[in-house]
Specification:
With 266 residues, the protein is mostly beta strands. The chain is 0% helix and 36% strand. The radius of gyration is 16 Å and the shape is globular.
Length: 266
Amino acid sequence: MTRKSTIVKVSLALTSLAMCCAFAVFATFTTSCASSDNGGTGGGNTQTGGTSGGGSTGNPTGGTTAASGNTVTFNAGQAQGAMTGYGWVAMGPNGDTVSDPTCDRTSTGGGKTDPITGVAGTGACNTTTNWSTTNSLCLTGAIPALGTPPDYSGNWGVEIGVNANADATVAIGTAHTSINVAVTGAVTGLRVNIHRKGDPDSTPYCASYTGSAIPLTSFNTACWDMSGTAFTAADAALIDKVMIQVPSGAAAIAVTNMCMTGITFN
């Protein structure tokens, strides 16, 4: 299934976090970073990490849809319900790869199934994203093992994200208390990331993925040791991006048809 999208924001920011050699990198779409207590898959994640936040968006071909309710479903790459933005994928620029989805760049002289990469400026899909399903956002990719010293900025993993509205100009607008992101094909140790409107892309909030509702006040800008800034109840209406990240670890990670199938706010 395809969906027209136009990138409206491209940023590249590298923020060094104080703890655990953690970094956050944001190039084109959203990116995130290294391993943490809630990151990676089985096979040797270290207890360090960074966060992800940012994101890009696509303007719908036929206008926007008003957000409503407290649940999010997907239709042809676009969120429906409490969020109405478009889905996207992102990855680190040094070795992290995504084979699905692909990008139809025929309108700009490219191929119909070009790869989406983490290369700033040229790797993003700013035309039409080819999603493999109509009712979820699915990703297949690979993450190499972190080397020595670990490259947290270049090899931070892969990520699926969605924006609150179609052109990423507003937040969800409702002060919920928890979030539950539904995922199929999940690898061990996922991370949920949220972003607060008005913050730099390099200042997201993260929490361990549990498969159940996570209190929004459990999110922290340094979720691996909770030493960062906590997300507060007053921030809840300002969420403008939600992400599922597979962070890199000490062992290589294969991600096969991992899908974000829905989001529930309570």
